[in-house]
Amino acid sequence: MRELDSEAAGRGRSFLLLPSKITCPAPEPDAIERPRVREKLAQAIARPVTTLVAPAGFGKTTALAAWADRLDGPVAWCALEEDDSDPSRFWHALACALARADERLGAPRNMAEVAWTEAVEAREALTELLAQLGAFPDTAVLVVEDLHVVQDAPVVGDTLAYFLRNLPPQVHLVLTSRTPLKVPLAKLRVRGALVEIGQDDLRLSPEEQAALFRGAALALTSEDEALLEEATQGWPAGCRLLEMRCRNAGAVEVTAIMRQARASVSDYLLEEVLEGVPADLMRFMTETAIVESFSAPLGARITGLTEAEVRSRVDRLADAGLFVQRLEGEGRATWYRYHAMLQDLLHTRLRRMPEQESLALAGRARGWLLDEGFDDAAVGLSFWMRDYGAICDIIEQRWKSLWMNDELEALLRWIDLLPAPLLNERPFLCAVAALPAAYAGDGLRGHALIQKALLRLDDGEDFLFSFCMVQKAFLASFEGKQAESAQFAEKALRFLPEEEGFLRGMMMQVRASTLWASDPLGAIAGYGEALPVQRAVGNANLLASALCNLAVFQAAVGQVADAERAAREALDLYEPGQRAAKPMLGFAWRALAEVAYERGDEVSFAESCGWFEELSVHGVVAARRAELLVLQAKDAYGRGNGASGRTAFTGALAVEEAAALSMMPTLAMIRDWRGSRNGESAGEMRGTGSAGRLGLFRLMERLVHGEDVAAESAAFADGVNSEDAALKVRACVTAAVAAERAGRFQGAVALVRQAFAVSRSWGLAAAFAENAPDMQPLAALLRVEAAKGERDGAGSGQAADDREAARMIEEALKGAPRASDALTERELDVLRVVADGASVAEAAEMLVVSRETVKKHLGNIYAKLGVHSKMQAVALLREEGVL
């Protein structure tokens, strides 16, 4: 893998999650054993879903942490927050938790990049994740903590319900909530597939309450026990608070404390307990509550203490039972968080703190988060501080890394936190926001933001102007306005400073792409110029984008060796395990598919198509899919499977017609397509145009229609640059076929020789022979010319070439072995009878065999033909002319 993670590349860390969010808490060493809860949790590993529903302070997390610690398999843990109601954040967090538990549980794609509001894409993403989980060889547990904070978000609720319905048997889902769950559980309950743990299960029994106090060397009288039960109703947090309050108290004081607690156990006890905390610990707790969780280094930055002092204070809090949870492992990697009740009370104390002091705490925390790459958490803290200026600063510092790492959704989310008047006053931020807005589907907003930036443009602000042109170029490209996109790219390049390699490289790519339809070789040259600029930037994603596009264009013009090198270099930028999350690499596989097709490498062709399909689940440019479908159609025709070829070609035209036609379909494909449309002309549908690949298609269409296009096609072929070898070969073949049909045999021979020479020079065997059914007369002419050359004793080299060209045409005519060749004569007899409409019973009677024998023959037939029904088998053999 190439090392391209330079500082210039940006860190791309907006979705870096705090470890405390996706780490299973360590078990509490002094937790009270609750047999009822333990017994119910013991059933969880045998049931698909377990729920723990109870208000704060009932020990849900404590019980689960102790249970998880006893399990042998991986436990993924995700603690939710209100911001996770965004489905991208929700599923990204769950996927990270799963991958953290065991990398084999990781999602196949980046869940943060899924368009969750698009039902089809959302279901595809979840199906992939479920398939990944289903392939896990052992038992695994996923704990989703505090589901109540997100379950009212419609998309989160719907997608979680789908996930729950399709949960693989070896994965067990545990949900905790403070309020009743809204996910559909009724069917699981009826099937006995649900373990439900509620308040009554989590309450401490009188015996368990007494055990808690005995652990603190407190012996309760029967009156004390009754008062304790009356005050707390078995609420574990209340019992713990009372135990802490009663420490070092005499018997009379204990009874008095119990009586006082009956009024308002939570507020009273927390305040009472905290009153007894030493001042240094109280200040430490209040200051570190500025963040939801903290590590020793973060705590040190906030408080001004050393890391050792932070750990010492946390140890003192834990020893005092003050509701602090440990997460992660030992030492520097350990993170901590306070119980929700305690956190709420500490937030109250923070609000009482002088504003300047609390903002200073938050500022120090934010600085550490930014230093460590937790940008999203830093933005969230800035929003809590209402420090919109800081959010603006973070966006201005990080926008480039977010662009480079395809995190436009995060960038837009940060921008949307800003008040509209403030955004309108920051023209550069308006310009930054335009592309993410358009990427999210709001092109009108994107254009409006650019216009706001331009209206506030001052003299001399060349960079801002050029940046607005960059955005306009991107938006025009999204909208298919290639000419406008090229114009804006040119303007951007005119004003962008030379040292701005990232944007200059992107604009060079945009400009090159706009040339493809009119000047393919110019497009390739443009990408060649952009590559050194992108390499200098040092970002793998940018370089992969340039290489993948270049590979597609090179393959399309027949520069197969160069295309293969570019595609392989793009793939090598990433480790194999990373490639599945890089949709751009689908372009590389698309290029490699064309390389394999041209070389006749069926194995590599199938592999490349498979990888393209796997990556296309992330979403793929329609043109690339249409192109690949045409390649698959050509491959099918070449193997004698016209039915599959017709289906693929029709599908390609439906996906994107212009891209499909640019792949130069064969005469047989055009003939069948016209036949399916009762001879309707494609020209009537696509307007006018005669240049390049579309021009060749129109000539081929007219040739199929029976027109004499010999002169026109010869002139067309003569005008094609030989560097565009793929078009040159196919244009010469078409012209040769047209010349032969017009009786211009010498012209036909000259053209087919030219096609063969170019194809051999560039390694384009398929381009030369894919029209073999229409080239049979040309093969005969070549044989005649070869014999004449040998007889005359001149041009022996040309004679050898003629024989080789004829051989290639004749070999292509043979195609692959027919599917029916694999069948025995008896199997063919069965299929012939079935094709005539006989049932299994009737076929058995006609062939004088048992029904089971007929069924066995049919099973063998399906396996050999790769089909799944009698109808498919009959259709395939009729296509081959066997039936």
From TrEMBL:
InterPro entries: P-loop_NTPase, Sig_transdc_resp-reg_C-effctor, TPR-like_helical_dom_sf, Tscrpt_reg_LuxR_C, WalR-like, WH-like_DNA-bd_sf, WHD_MalT. Gene3D superfamilies: P-loop containing nucleotide triphosphate hydrolases (3.40.50.300), Tetratricopeptide repeat domain (1.25.40.10), Winged helix-like DNA-binding domain superfamily/Winged helix DNA-binding domain (1.10.10.10). SMART domains: HTH_LUXR. It holds the Pfam family GerE. Residues 816-881 form the HTH luxR-type domain. This is HTH luxR-type domain-containing protein. PANTHER family: TRANSCRIPTIONAL REGULATORY PROTEIN DESR (PTHR43214:SF42), TWO-COMPONENT RESPONSE REGULATOR (PTHR43214). One of its GO terms (molecular function) is DNA binding. Keywords: DNA-binding.
